[in-house]
Design a protein that fits this description.
The chain has helices spanning 21-30, 32-45, 49-55, 62-83, 97-103, 109-129, 144-156, 181-190, 209-218, 244-256, 261-270, 289-294; strands spanning 8-13, 89-92, 134-140, 161-168, 171-177, 194-199, 232-233, 240-241, 259-260, 273-279, 296-300, 310-312. The protein is built from twelve helices and twelve strands. Helix content is 45%, strand content 19%. It folds into two domains: 8-129 and 207-306, Malonyl-Coenzyme A Acyl Carrier Protein, domain 2, CATH 3.40.366; 134-200, 2-Layer Sandwich (Alpha-Beta Plaits). The protein is α/β, with parallel strands linked by helices and 317 residues long. It catalyses: holo-[ACP] + malonyl-CoA = malonyl-[ACP] + CoA.
Length: 317
């Protein structure tokens, strides 16, 4: 059994929620760690990321994604320099895989910026042609039996649906046609649940195997990944990722595999991890019961960056 002085730590890069300049623009303009990464990203893309993000009209557009990526990496930089962050393992949850790829040393930062941008453009082209009617909804306080009941009703009507993620007890992601989103939300309310937010385009479902194939051919083929210097944990099954070929597969799996947080937690605990540092504009991971029950959680997002970080202890739960 691992003793206290052998306790390990992990850094977790969160998935991407709606990203708006009005929410993080000021932070990006004044934070020195972000400014340093912004300069490198501007050089990599040959344009001002901040200007493009400011004028972007969508919450999940290409430069909103690049900005989210930059903020996540810069906040990890801050944690390394100001808090002595020296993790034993790294997790990229959903979109956070891109920041994890850079932080783990598998891809230089400038290349990871280009990868993030090219992936966003490839996705945009794909969804201009296919699956324009699909959305992914995050719901909470919905026990498995209640979710099965509501999904069974969709199945009886012949409505397309897929479970795109299991995040916590009663918290799930479901992909469906946008036309049935509102009645689905009403049914979720009727069984005592809540709808948090929806994403368009959709994510993490088997119907997107075509996008996976396109990304593999048009984007990832142009990038040479190295073996990560810091091991990663896969966000769909908790597998340990230590080689470049495994990481390449993981980056592709994100398109057509549902994300599952519990296996990640199980792997971290099995490795003796006691503390997780969630570095990025996170609205979810650091608050999940399954996270705070298992670990001491240090959240460092834009709102915490300029004040001392707060640790959520397992003893507080």
């Amino acid at each position: 059994m691992m003793t206290t002085d052998q306790a390990r730590s992990a850094v977790v890069f969160p998935g991407m929620g709606p990203s708006r300049f009005t929410d993080v623009g000021k932070f990006m303009m004044i934070d020195p760690y972000v400014r340093k990464r912004l300069a490198a990203a501007d050089d990599a893309l040959g344009r001002s990321v901040l200007d493009e993000f400011r004028t972007a009209g969508t919450d999940f557009g290409a430069f909103a994604q690049v900005a989210f990526f930059i903020n996540s990496v810069a906040l990890a930089d801050r944690a390394v320099e100001t808090q002595g962050l020296a993790p034993d393992v790294c997790v990229g949850f959903s979109f956070g895989q891109k920041a994890a790829t850079a932080f783990s040393g598998a891809l230089p930062f400038a290349e990871a910026v280009r990868l993030t941008h090219e992936l966003a453009l490839c996705e945009q082209r794909f969804f201009e042609e296919q699956h324009q009617d699909l959305v992914t909804l995050t719901i909470t306080r919905v026990p498995a039996a209640a979710l099965d009941e509501v999904l069974g009703e969709l199945a009886e009507r012949g409505e397309f649906h897929e479970v795109s993620g299991h995040l916590d007890e009663g918290m799930h992601m479901v992909t469906m046609r946008e036309q049935v989103l509102e009645p689905f939300q009403r049914r979720i309310s009727a069984v005592g649940g809540y709808s948090l937010y929806s994403m368009k385009p959709p994510a993490h479902c088997r119907v997107l195997t075509g996008l996976r194939a396109r990304v593999e051919e048009e984007v990832l083929a142009e990038f040479e990944l190295a073996d990560p210097e810091l091991p990663l944990i896969a966000d769909h099954d908790g597998a340990l990722i230590t080689r470049a070929d495994q990481l390449r597969t993981l980056l592709l799996d994100t398109f057509d595999h549902p994300v599952r947080w519990h296996p990640v937690v199980d792997t971290l605990r099995g490795m003796g991890v006691r503390t997780v540092h969630v570095t990025g504009p996170d609205r979810l991971i650091h608050r999940l019961d399954v996270t705070t029950r298992a670990f001491d959680v240090v959240a460092l997002g834009p709102e915490q960056a300029l004040r001392p970080a707060r640790t959520t202890s397992r003893k507080e739960k």
